[in-house]
Amino acid sequence: MRMDVTSTYIANLPVGSDAGPFAFESAAGEAAIDSVDIDNLPSGIVTGSNLIDFPASVGPELRSSIALSLLAAQRVAANDPVIMDPDQWIDRHNTVLKNLNWTVEGGGNVNSTFDSINVAVHQAIIPFLVAAFGPAAAASTLILTALKQLDQMDQNSSWITLFDQQSRRFGVSEYQFSTVETEAGQIRLRMASARFDASYGRRQVLFFAVKTQSAKFVAANSKLSADSDLLKRMNGELKIKLAGATNNYIRGLPGNLIK
User: Fold this and answer.
1) Residue 109 — very low, low, confident or very high, per pLDDT cuts 50/70/90?
2) What is the CATH T-level fold of the domain 46-252, as seen in this structure?
3) From CA 148, how far away is CA 200, in angstroms rounded?
4) Residue 144 phi/psi, 5° resolution?
């Protein structure tokens, strides 16, 4: 898509109200990470329903463009009155990304089961994420570090609250997890999602204890890629379009995880 066409598309995106669906209250000690600087994002962030791990090789402008692209896709899908179920939400989300010069490969849902019982969901999904990201990437991703340490964190911290609330739609909770890589001028994302129905509860599903042998969830994997230069060129328009939403829908992970 030509850059002038992309700029017009971004300007006309129906992202809805800038205001978040709830008020954030920082837990003790979180003041430093409660607000984000979109021009200086940390290596681990939550963008709505997506937990993203950036490597050091991805600089501030690209981090900003990636986060804002994903946020734009989520906000458009969330505000589209035609969308009536989780699969339509994903389709709309991916259509926006394609129109923002991303290539989206893979997708489709797979019914999966947990091998472990008497553990929380955030621990039980780790083998699925290792398989989705590949052993090498999974070994170093702070996504797994965050999930392993979730029991030790305040469940009401702003990033967990955001991640949980923005993952709830149409009677399910669908969490997205993304790792980022660079290769020959391209940005590549591996995105994995895990969808849980109402049998897991409607709030704080990641803390739900898996009690049933072979408890089910719906898994999906996809690969996204985009030209680094194109992403940088979109940065200004995306920041303008989502200026009011950034502080409501993006949070950094705790400093002890990303040092």
Assistant:
1) confident
2) Delta-endotoxin CytB (3.40.198)
3) 19
4) -70, -35
Q: Quick one: which of 11, 69, 91 has its CA closest to 187?
A: 69
Please report, for the chain, the start and end positions of each structural domain, with discontinuous segments joined by +.
46-252
* Tokens (6 digits) for 118: 């008497």
Which pTM was predicted? 0.91
Alpha helices in 125-196 (DSSP H): 126-133, 135-140, 142-148, 158-166
What separation in angstroms does the CA of 100 have from each of 5, 144, 155?
Answer: 10, 29, 34
pLDDT in tens, 71-107: 999 999 999 999 999 999 999 999 999 999 999 987 6
Alpha-carbon distance 202 to 219, whole Å? 18
DSSP 174: E
Closest CA to 62 of 152, 221, 186, 209: 186
Per-residue burial over 6-36, b = 16 or more CB atoms within 10 Å of its CB, e = otherwise = bbebbeebebeeeebeeebeebeebeebbeb
In angstroms, rounded to a whole number, what is the distance separating the alpha carbons of residues 20 and 28?
A: 21
User: What whole-number distance in Å separates Cα of residue 258 and Cα of residue 252?
Assistant: 9
Between CA 6 and CA 98 the distance in angstroms is 11
